[in-house]
Amino acid sequence: MSFFGLGSKDIGIDLGTANILVTLKGKGIVLNEPSVVAIDRKSQRIIATGHEAKEMLGRTPEQIKAIRPLKDGVIADFTATQLMLKNIIYKIAKRYNVGRPRVVVGVPSGITEVEERAVEEAVLQAGAKEVYLMEEPMAAAIGANLDIAEPSGNIIVDIGGGTTEVAVISLGGVVVSNSIRVAGDELDEEIVNYIKREMNLAIGESTAEEIKKQIGCAMPLVTEMSLEVSGRDLTTGLPQTVKITSTQVEEAIQESIDKIVEIIKQTLERTPPELSSDIMEKGIFLSGGGALIKNLDKLISERTEMPVYVAEDPLECVVKGTGKTLEDLERLKTVLINSRNRK
């Protein structure tokens, strides 16, 4: 690929279970699309990625497979992830005249060494010159403009598609962290199951995600909202439309929301007392798509008796954090998991 000889620009990637975001040094976020890839089973070639591939989920003929190659924040299908990353880096390199970039990738904090190597390998094979990995909560904290270098504690809760990660950060490092594989996808699943159980209706994941985004809440809303939902009636097998309310959605996702609150409390219990007092003062910061669930900040605040803030543009915190790290790589090297320099 000859264009890799051109001017080198650095790339930051939030390799999310639900969405992939890419930031380019000097340009900001240049790509934000679903982590979905459609592959031709015979030739193993990519047919589509992102929005186009997401439209195909659950609708493909035999010869095409549309998949989400990341599950619970980690690579579930290595080949598909590699193809997707290659495709994305290629597109960006071509569009923005990028040489062989240095790449910083946000990965879940619970990632194993094998998974780390899989990510590195995929990005290097996609044409990167050097790959650095950083933990998502750390990236989110930097992206949410928290001052991570000072000797006082900050706590960030990053609720993504596959994982919820909680980290207490001080002096540029993670002091205590916790990660559970309960996040946006799990909430969608609970909505699917609830509607199947209570309304005898089968709906797809994309519909469940829409319901969550539009009327999902962690505590009752001042004015109840409702939504018309179409699916397949499980008795007759025919298409059917029902109405679902925000109260019902709240009931559907309650179990997962409780687990998320629980992991925040467990993290706080393990936090050194000196940092606890800082956190009490500054509050808890929420990032990731899950931070947008209505009244989740209120619920967490009520259960922890602490102020809770939703970061600005919570969906973009991780990728913004990778971008800021690239701008100041020397100073922020300590936050990288694999800061050993590889040429």
How many DSSP helices?
11
Helicity range? 25-40%
Mean pLDDT over all positions: 90
Task: State the major sheet.
Answer: 5 strands, mixed
| Gyration radius, rounded | 21 Å
**Terminal-residue CA separation:** 18 Å
Structural class: alpha+beta
**Percentage of residues in strands:** 25-35%
Strand order of the largest sheet: 3-2-1-9-10
Question: SSE order in H/E notation?
Answer: EEEEEHEEEHEHEHEEEHEHEEHHEHEHH
Low-pLDDT windows of residues: 1-7, 339-343
Number of strands: 18
Any idea what the shape is?
flat
How does this model look, in words?
The relative contact order is 0.15. The chain is an alpha+beta fold. The chain is built from eleven helices and 18 strands. A hairpin with a 3-residue loop joins strand 1 and strand 2. It has a five-stranded mixed β-sheet, with helices on both faces. Strands 13-12-11-17-18 form a five-stranded mixed β-sheet, with helices on both faces. Strands 5-4-6 form a three-stranded antiparallel β-sheet.
